[in-house]
Amino acid sequence: MSERWPEPPKLDGPPGRDDGVVGGGIEVEEVEDEVEDVAAVDEVADAEEVAEAEVEEQAAEPDSPEHAAGEFSVPDGYGVLAGRPEGGRRAVGIVVSRFNGAVTGKLLEGALAELDSAGVPRDAITVMPVPGAFELPIAAMALAKTRRYACIVALGCVIRGDTPHFDFVAGEAASGLQLAALETGVPVAFGVLTLEQADQADDRLEKGAEAVRTGLEMADVFAQLRAAAQR
Question: Known catalytic residue: 67?
Fold first, then answer.
């Protein structure tokens, strides 16, 4: 029996590699699969980090592009005359448009719930329905001139259509309600939604309660101002 010298290793691949086998008997395909699995896990982790960062960024942003983030404060050392949205024994008048009643009815519900939370009794609240937003100013003026109400809350909804009707009604309602407040000195809170489409109303129904808080706060600060002037 003749003895043969072992064949020299092949030089067309790295030492220890022969026909797709890595040192230790591990197939190349297995190593590649493990590398792909690790890369997939890393991609998932990176995606989760990006998602968390986006959530944090969104949380830091204001809820609406109409509002800016941050708190308002008056520097120390100055006299401050500020009202609070408290009802107590105050009487409140509400003028509300029947037009787009599916929306204005919900605004009214929110306003009445907020008045109840603020401690305004039902018998101190007067609700005056009017045909549409265009009639809100004259109704608010009439209630304010009675001098029976600490504030007036105006609720309505105007939705843009294919004609300039929206611009005239929304603009006149806003300027008319401001005029009612300026002429009578009674705060008139603006709770009129101006929408491009009807489906935008659901995200803005808090406007009724917000208008109540605005009216009560202004009524309170006016009461403080009158009390201070009489001293």
Answer: no
pTM for this entry:
0.70
Candidates 3.50.50.60, 3.90.1720.10, 3.40.50.720, 3.40.50.960; correct CATH number of 92-229? 3.40.50.960
Q: Of 98, 147, 148, 165, which one is the catalytic site residue? A: 165
Which of 32-36, 84-88, 97-101, 168-172 has maximum average pLDDT? Answer: 97-101
Q: Which residues pair with 27 in a beta bridge?
A: 21
- The C-alpha atoms of residue 205 and residue 198 are separated, in whole angstroms, by 12
Cα dihedral sign, 165-171-174-180: negative
Report the distance separating Cα 134 and Cα 66, nearest Å: 24
Locus of tokens 């003028």 = 95
Contact 181, 145 (CB under 8 A): no
